[in-house]
Design a protein that fits this description.
The chain is an alpha+beta fold and 473 residues long. It folds into 4 domains: 91 residues, Uridine Diphospho-n-acetylenolpyruvylglucosamine Reductase, domain 2; 118 residues, Uridine Diphospho-n-acetylenolpyruvylglucosamine Reductase, domain 3 (2-Layer Sandwich), CATH 3.30.465.10; 106 residues, 2-Layer Sandwich (Alpha-Beta Plaits); 88 residues, Alpha-Beta Plaits. Helix content is 35%, strand content 22%. It has a 7-stranded antiparallel beta sheet, with helices on both faces. A 5-stranded antiparallel beta sheet has the order 5-6-10-8-9. The protein has a 4-stranded mixed beta sheet with strand order 1-2-4-3. Strand 5 and strand 6 form a beta hairpin. The model has no long low-confidence stretch (mean pLDDT 95).
Length: 473
């Protein structure tokens, strides 16, 4: 039976982490939530533990196991599904001090890091080796352990895949405190169950990730960005299959409605380069050299022009590329003050247009704004439920009744996604925010199978309890 830690337990934990333990409410507040905009899931931990080594993590887990104290592992806290919110009376195990590069191995195109290393640091380390870590889930303050725990994706998944594709090895502390070394610097393995893959996307419910070995790639020699406008969203979406059939695999294909871009244009006081039509595709291409990437750009341009593109604009310099990418990247930040929840539904590509039309129908029916954009070539859409009005990109007054309307609209969006063969999360995870919808998406039998795995690896239910699903006895 899970219980809150007492004074004696806290003193033992304090000795393990050499004083790196927080109990003051003012210090605990930032560990009570992630980046999910609504505070309904927030919960104060009884304490925050900050181990400085993998051995300390294992010792703390054993301490929790002996007393039945629930614990939630936390990295950068950048998630959007309330997956790292502590359970009532539980403790947070913050991995922020585990931020060391354990081994850089360019000969094997690999790097091993501790789980608390940030994505920004990982990118810097790869750059120093003359190599490249392609996945870019967004916030560079996210920690590597959290990226694995959610199988994070990002805009480059169409060419490079999610974190799954780059994961080579893990060190994991189980609920008993036992340490597992999974995988390694090998590209193949048929040696038993895929325990490493089981930890991928488990959101800290099956084990605590302490080290990660990732594959790296040679750095691309050149990158180019195209902005291609269309009469409307339907035509932009319909153009994507032709683009992919052109023989070019783009690094990213972002779908953006111009009405949504108006908000970030106001936020940055910059203009989106395309002026015609009501929607754009932002296509990023990379390759070994500029000549090859420009050849790709020509083929992509021709394919999109055949599909009805109104204009095809090529960013003329790296600075202009960065400016365009920043407009796309800061959409969330621009809309954040008005956002109650950000969804990340993933659909078969052929269903994107139909789902976005459904979104617009909900806007008209409920009198709300649901700005939607996403990764067109991998089917991952982000819809903001706004608690305010949005007119010409300007955030307006708070809407009456938005709290009551949010679960209604969320349920309608998820139901439409499931009916189209989609899933309720492409890259953010389930956490607390989406667990009520998981069985309707995957089926009750799948959830029961997950529960069986959870019970086998965490019989006391102390690891991040209540996330993804409730573990019924």
């Amino acid at each position: 039976m899970a219980r809150a830690p007492d004074a004696g337990w806290l003193e033992q934990a304090r000795r393990i982490v050499a004083g790196h333990l927080l109990t003051d409410p003012a210090d605990l507040e930032k560990y009570s939530h992630d980046e999910l905009a609504t505070p309904q899931y927030n919960a104060m931990p009884a304490a925050v533990l900050k181990p400085g080594s993998e051995e300390e993590v294992a010792e703390l887990v054993r301490l929790c196991a002996r007393a039945g104290v629930p614990l939630t592992a936390r990295g950068g806290g950048t998630g959007l599904a309330a997956a790292c919110v502590p359970s009532l009376g539980g403790v947070v195990l913050s991995l922020e001090r585990l931020d060391r590069v354990v081994e850089a191995d360019p000969a094997n195109l690999a790097i091993t890091v501790q789980a608390g290393l940030t994505l920004n640091r990982l990118n810097q380390e790869a750059e120093s080796l003359g190599l490249y870590f392609p996945p870019h889930p967004g916030d560079e303050g996210a920690c590597v352990g959290g990226l694995v725990a959610t199988n994070a994706g990002g805009s480059r998944a169409v060419k490079y895949g999610t974190i799954r594709r780059f994961l080579l090895g893990l060190q994991v502390v189980l609920a008993s405190g036992q340490v597992l070394e999974l995988g390694g610097k090998r590209l193949k393995s048929s040696a038993g169950y895929g325990l490493m893959e089981l930890m991928l996307g488990s959101e800290g419910t099956l084990g605590i990730i302490t080290r990660v070995t990732l594959a790296l790639l040679p750095k691309a020699g050149s990158m180019q960005t195209l902005v291609v406008s269309f009469e409307d969203l339907d035509r932009a979406v319909a153009a994507v299959p032709g683009l992919l059939a052109s023989g070019v695999v783009p690094c990213a294909v972002e779908l953006l409605e111009h009405g949504v871009l108006a908000c970030v244009e106001r936020h940055l006081n910059r203009r989106w380069p395309a002026t015609r039509g009501r929607a754009s595709l932002m296509v990023i291409l990379d390759g070994p050299d500029e000549e090859e990437v420009l050849r790709q750009a020509q083929r992509v341009s021709e394919a999109l022009e055949r599909a009805g593109a109104l204009e095809v604009l090529l960013a003329e310099s790296p600075a202009r590329q960065r400016e365009i990418l920043e407009l796309r990247s800061l959409l969330y930040e621009a809309l954040r003050p008005a956002t109650a929840e950000l969804l990340d539904i993933c659909l078969p590509r052929s269903q994107i247009s139909g789902h976005v039309s459904f979104v617009h129908g909900l806007e008209r029916r409920h009198g709300i704004s649901l700005p939607t954009y996403g990764h067109a070539a991998d089917g991952n859409l982000h819809t903001h439920f706004l608690r305010t009005s949005l007119v010409d990109g300007a955030i307006g007054q708070e809407l009456d009744g938005w709290r009551e309307l949010l679960p209604v609209v969320r349920g309608e969006l998820y139901a439409d996604a499931v009916a189209r063969g989609g899933v309720i999360s492409g890259e953010h995870g389930i956490g607390l925010a989406k667990k009520a919808y998981l069985a309707a998406n995957l089926g009750q039998a799948a959830v029961e199978a997950m529960r069986a795995v959870k019970r086998a690896l965490d019989p006391q239910g102390i690891l991040n309890p209540g996330k993804i699903f409730d573990c019924l006895k």
